[in-house]
Write a structure and sequence with these properties.
Length: 107
C-alpha cells in the first residue's frame, strides 16, 4: 500500500493490515501533508504485523538528522517491520547536492 499521508493514515494502515497487506508506505511531503513520522508512529501503535515506512525521504525537504532520528526510533520500536528509502530530491535547487552528483553548476 502506497498512499498520501492524511490525518486518517494510521486508521487506513490498520485496515490494510486486517486485509493482509504486508507493507504500508506513506508519502513524505511536509509542504502539503501531515507529518509522516507522526502518522507512522500512530500506525505502529495501532498495528502489529504490517511493515511501515515513508515512500521516499527527500533530503531537500527535511534535515537528514530529522529523518535519521525518525527512522531509528521507529526501527527500534517495530524491529523487522521498518523500511526506509532516501532520494536527493530537488538537485537543481540545492548546490551542495549538485556538486555531489558531479555537476559543477557552471557552464
Amino acid at each position: 500500500m502506497l498512499a498520501p499521508t492524511t490525518l486518517s493514515s494510521s486508521d487506513d494502515i490498520a485496515v490494510a493490515e486486517e486485509f493482509g497487506y504486508a507493507r504500508a508506505w506513506l508519502y513524505d511531503t511536509p509542504q502539503n501533508s501531515p507529518d509522516v513520522w507522526m502518522s507512522l508512529s500512530l500506525a505502529a501503535e495501532r498495528t502489529s504485523r504490517i511493515g511501515l515506512g515513508p515512500g521516499v525521504l527527500i533530503s531537500s525537504l527535511r534535515h537528514p538528522m530529522v529523518n535519521a532520528a525518525g527512522t531509528a526510533t521507529l526501527a527500534r520500536w517495530r524491529q523487522g517491520a521498518w523500511r526506509s528509502r532516501s532520494a536527493p530530491g530537488l538537485v537543481d535547487g540545492c548546490p551542495h547536492l549538485r556538486r555531489r552528483a558531479g555537476d559543477s553548476g557552471g557552464s
